[in-house]
Amino acid sequence: MSSNDQGEGSSSRSVSASADNHHPHQQQQQQQQPAQLSRYESQKRRDWNTFGQYLRNQRPPVALPQCSYNHVLDFLRYLDQFGKTKVHVQGCVFFGQVEPAGPCTCPLRQAWGSLDALIGRLRAAYEENGGLPETNPFASGTIRVYLREVRDSQAKARGIPYKKKKKKKRNQMKGTINEGTSSSIQM
C-alpha cells in the first residue's frame, strides 16, 4: 500500500482526498494566524490575558462583568512593582532634576506613557470581547484622572513639565501652501 492510497489516520480514499485537500490548508491558516497579528494586536491580547488573570487571582475572584474602575486602578498600582522608571519622591535630593548626579532609593514605577498605552489597548479589548462601551471600566473618567496625575507627578519628579503638543490647524497649513502657490503664479 502506498502513502497516496491512504490519508493520515483515514481508512477511506475519498476521505483522504478531502483531508489532503483541506486539512493541510487549515493547519497552515491556523499556524499563520498568530504570526499575522500585528504587534499592537499581540500586545493587546497579552494585556487582556494578563488583566483576566489578575482578576481571577483576586480573593474572591472577580468576574469580568463585575469589574469596575476600582479593579483597574488596583491593577495599575499592582503593575508599578514591575516598573523600570525611577520616580523621585519630594524628599529626595534629586527631585525635579532632569539628570540626577547619583543613585537614590526612590521607587521604580511604570512610566506614564506605558500605562496610557496599556489602558488604550485594554479599553479596545474590553469592547472586542463583548463588553459594552457604556460599562467599559477602562474608559472611566476616574482612570483618565489617575493617568493625568501619574503623568504630572512623573514630569514634576523629573523636572520636565509635560506640555501637550499642539496640532496645526488644517486651514493654516492650506493657507501657507496656497499663498506660496499663488505668489509663484503671479510672477
Automatic annotation (TrEMBL):
Q: What is its main location?
A: nucleus
Coiled-coil intervals: none
UniProt feature, compositional bias: Basic residues: 161-172
Domain named ALOG is located at 39-166
Kindly list the GO CC terms recorded for this protein: nucleus
Q: Which family does it belong to?
A: Belongs to the plant homeotic and developmental regulators ALOG protein family.
Native organism:
Olea europaea subsp. europaea
The answer to whether the entry has keyword Ribosomal protein is no
Q: Kindly provide the name given to this protein in its UniProt entry.
A: LIGHT-DEPENDENT SHORT HYPOCOTYLS 10-like
Q: Where is this region: Disordered?
A: 1-42, 157-187
Give the Low complexity compositional bias ranges.
10-19
**Sorted alphabetically, which keywords does the UniProt record give?**
Developmental protein, DNA-binding, Nucleus, Transcription, Transcription regulation
Against PANTHER family, the record matches this protein to: PROTEIN G1-LIKE2, PROTEIN LIGHT-DEPENDENT SHORT HYPOCOTYLS 7-RELATED
What GO annotations for molecular function exist for this entry?
A: DNA binding
Lineage, opening ranks: Eukaryota, Viridiplantae, Streptophyta, Embryophyta, Tracheophyta
One Gene Ontology term of the biological-process aspect is: mRNA transcription
Q: Where is the composition biased (Polar residues)?
A: 173-187
Q: Which superkingdom does the taxonomy of this entry point to?
A: Eukaryota
Please give the InterPro entries that the UniProt record associates with this protein.
Answer: ALOG (IPR040222), ALOG_dom (IPR006936)
Locations listed in the record = Nucleus
